[in-house]
């Protein structure tokens, strides 16, 4: 029984497809920049003596990968200015980039204005950001308009690594397999 090149390659192509679907590729590292403006509200007084406050921030602006909105929850010890929290950047198509951050709140010469500096770490998300990793430093200002509300401006700069989704891998692998299969079926011209 004679085995054709196509018959010999078919099992290898199937194994390659199966491996490609289960194994993520190495991620490409890309520049991450974003700028947002919005409102930060005190949503909980955790300790009134220090005070330690929980803030929620909702903002919009412009970011890499169409990340046009931002929200975060953080806890800040206002006596030291040190805080940490979690954030979500949302793209126009609804995909989300998730992260955590540390922040330092710094008083300024103006009583109701604070400077913000910090570091964000990206840890996955949804859609295109499901395997994301990376980090960005950020800076900004908070202008308190009342005892419990501030206008916030934030600017981010860093790097992010995005891993293609399994569905993208499947599509890419199927295309490669079809190309190889088609090429294997050709006979050389003499």
TrEMBL record:
Keyword Transport applies: no
UniProt keyword Signal, yes or no: yes
InterPro entries cross-referenced by the UniProt entry: Ice-binding_C
Signal peptide boundaries: 1-27
Domain Ice-binding protein C-terminal: 163-183
Pfam families per record: PEP-CTERM (PF07589)
Keyword list, A-Z: Signal
Protein's recorded name: Ice-binding protein C-terminal domain-containing protein
């Amino acid at each position: 029984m004679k085995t054709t090149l196509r018959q010999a390659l078919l099992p290898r192509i199937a194994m390659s497809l199966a491996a490609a679907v289960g194994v993520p590729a190495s991620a490409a590292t890309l520049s991450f920049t974003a700028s947002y403006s919005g409102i930060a509200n005190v949503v909980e007084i955790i300790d009134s003596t220090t005070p330690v406050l929980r803030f929620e921030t909702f903002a919009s602006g412009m970011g890499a990968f169409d990340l046009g909105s931002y929200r975060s929850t953080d806890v800040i010890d206002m006596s030291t200015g040190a805080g940490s929290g979690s954030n979500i950047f949302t793209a126009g198509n609804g995909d989300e980039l998730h992260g955590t951050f540390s922040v330092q709140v710094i008083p300024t010469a103006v009583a109701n204005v604070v400077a913000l500096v910090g570091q964000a770490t990206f840890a996955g998300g949804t859609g295109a950001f499901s395997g994301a990793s990376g980090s960005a430093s950020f800076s900004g200002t908070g202008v308190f308009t009342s005892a419990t509300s501030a206008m916030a401006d934030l600017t981010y700069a860093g790097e992010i690594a995005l891993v293609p989704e399994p569905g993208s891998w499947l599509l890419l692998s199927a295309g490669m397999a079809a190309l190889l299969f088609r090429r294997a079926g050709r006979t050389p011209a003499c």
